[in-house]
Amino acid sequence: IRDGRLDRLTTTRHTAGLTGLPVAPAIDNLVLDGGGERSLDEMVAATSGRALLLTCLWYIREVDPATLLLTGLTRDGVYLVEDGEVVGEVNNFRFNESPVDLLSRAVEAGRTEKTLPREWGDWFTRAAMPALRIPDFNMSSVSLGV
After folding, report:
1. Other C-beta atoms within 10 Å of 90: how many?
2. What's the confidence (pLDDT) of residue 37?
């Protein structure tokens, strides 16, 4: 995906030969540049009211490939933000969201920074992502496990 549009699908040498498409091997990097300049700390400080700060998503599994609906758990990093200040830790949650829907609802993207994916790190070993402000992230239930 480039500039918000599908650029090409993964194509092996074999499938490229069958289809006449250019070879487009699978890649191991994932970059999202939202164009924002604020740091995560600055985004938290600009938060009014109550919000959750999620710093880690774990156990991400595909539920519906047609809509790219994913389910998973938050892990080791869910914090309550009140009026621009982190005031405490909260429990982990199960979530059900599609990254396509999340990106369409994002109201702010911070500065893109290098990160190491905890989940899917075997496929995307090099990543750079911005912090995102997304209203109404769907926390479907409280996670009672680890």
Report:
1. 13
2. 93
